[in-house]
Amino acid sequence: MLARRFTIVCLLVTLFGMGFAILVAEAGRSKNPYQTAGATSCFVGQKIFCRR
Length: 52
Fold this sequence. Notes:
This protein is mainly alpha-helical.
């Protein structure tokens, strides 16, 4: 009985942790200063001048 409850709690915590990790990853990805909506990044001195 105790093992069953422990398993359920662990599964719930795992699901919550995965959801939180997805939220954090999405928030970090959208704050990239070199990637804005529709803009290209152009750097001087690179072989590839403008990347999308």
